[in-house]
Amino acid sequence: MAEKTPSAPPSEEKPIGFNLSEFNSTTILTEKQKLEDEEDYNPFVHRVVEKPNSTGGALAHLLKSSLGTGILAMPMAFKNAGLLFGGIGTIVVGILCTYCVHILVKTSHDVCKKGRVPSLGFAETVEKVFALGPQPIQKFANASKLFVDYALMATYYSAACVYIVFIATSFAKVINFELELDWDVRIYIALIFIPVLIMGQIRILKYLVPFSAIANLFIIVTFAVTLYYMFNVELEFHDKPLFSSFGQLPLFFSTVIFAMEGIGVVMPVENSMKKPQHFLGCPGVLNTAMITVIVLYAVMGFFGYVRFGDIVEGSITLNLPQTEPLAQTAQILIALAILFTFGLQFYVPMDILWRKLEHRIPKEKHNISQIAIRTGIILICSAVAAAVPNLEPFIGLVGALFFSTLGLLVPAVVETIFKWPDNLGPLKLILVKNIIVGIFAIFALVSGSIVSISEIVEIYRGEEH
């Protein structure tokens, strides 16, 4: 059992909350505060968290957030990179994603010390970094917070669209084959609207726990079946290229970024830990989780591509043999798992959105307003899914647009601003390093978006003919 973090005396405990005045450099400090400043404020001691997560619990949460539909898309990523480049590229992107999470969390800790607050979320960290930064950018503090909030919502809503396409495509594969139908996947998107809507109406997190537990069980079974079909025949390596082509690399990078990034859950997990000092460091929760993720993703991508080659689809489960009941069961189970996970996926952006809206709506209309807003957003997500019912370019587009921005670009910018201008290291190496990360993020954003949109256009042209 991990040793419990010592608590501050009751008079000095601060709830997890703050206001901008706490960051004002002209705030008058009491003698006690000045003394505490000299001893270096420790935000971990001042955190008051109901039912905090253990270190093992935090690791489980972080792994669960990263091990979802993304791992099933990894063979497709390798198709766009080749065996050798795919393996190296997956490791490099994994290290880069881990590093960006590390600098975001470390900067958040430093801002908490400087601003004397126990903890900060993702958007709040960005806001306070701007508020404490150079004078010309301080006026953008609120705008930066709004940007991250809305980008997080867009990320999760876009991922919800991918979920809908994934569920509908999995059901379509099995049902069309069994009933000898030729229904378009858009029909299945319409058919699953009601169950998706029901999952999206659940507003209390504890009510989603049983669905999440069932989903985890289904995912484990699906992974086991998928691995069986990956290795039940002799694998042929000679006909798989070591490198695909430069034109396909943007799709590779954006797919891997989509698969690995869990930037939205990092700060909530870290803020809820009993011993948050165990999140970073070696081995640490972050490093342990990401090493596990990188290894699993690389193995699934490498051998999945070797097994199915260029016919591999946006989810490897769609390549399982349609004639075998075991394979069909796996496809149905993964579709149900993603359906049961939809509520949790939808909870995060709705929580952000509702906090922005609830004070503007009369209290007696809160319930009907929630129902209407959730229904409208799920209707829009379903419409977007029906407009782009193809997993491969859709995953690439979401990864390029949102995950490269929030997961790579924002942490690099935040660390640079916080350390500006005197703490950028010898020869300003931190600045140089963050410029390189920023250039890669922008490359992934622009090139990945262009290639994904081009593929979507080609799909539509093919449908017209």
Plain-language structure description:
- With 465 residues, this protein is mainly α.
- Helices cover 69% and strands 0% of the residues.
- It is built from 18 helices and no strands.
- The protein has helices spanning 31-38, 55-66, 69-72, 74-79, 83-115, 122-132, 135-138, 141-178, 185-191, 193-200, 205-231, 249-260, 263-271, 285-308, 325-357, 366-387, 391-419, 429-464.
- Helix 6 (122-132) packs parallel to helix 17 and helix 17 packs antiparallel against helix 18.
- The longest helix is centred in the middle third of the chain and has 38 residues, at 141-178.
- The protein is globular.
- Mean pLDDT is 83; it is low at 1-29.
Strand content range? under 5%
Spans where pLDDT lies below 50 across 5 or more residues: 1-29
| Tally of separate helices | 18
Describe the biggest sheet?
none
- Terminal CA distance reads 64 Å
Described by the principal axes of the CA atoms, the overall outline is globular
Order of helices and strands: HHHHHHHHHHHHHHHHHH
SSE topology sketch:
Layout: H1 31-38, H2 55-66, H3 69-72, H4 74-79, H5 83-115, H6 122-132, H7 135-138, H8 141-178, H9 185-191, H10 193-200, H11 205-231, H12 249-260, H13 263-271, H14 285-308, H15 325-357, H16 366-387, H17 391-419, H18 429-464
Helix pairs in contact: 2-13, 2-14, 5-6, 5-12, 5-14, 5-17, 6-8, 6-17, 8-9, 8-15, 8-16, 8-17, 9-16, 10-15, 10-16, 11-15, 12-17, 12-18, 17-18
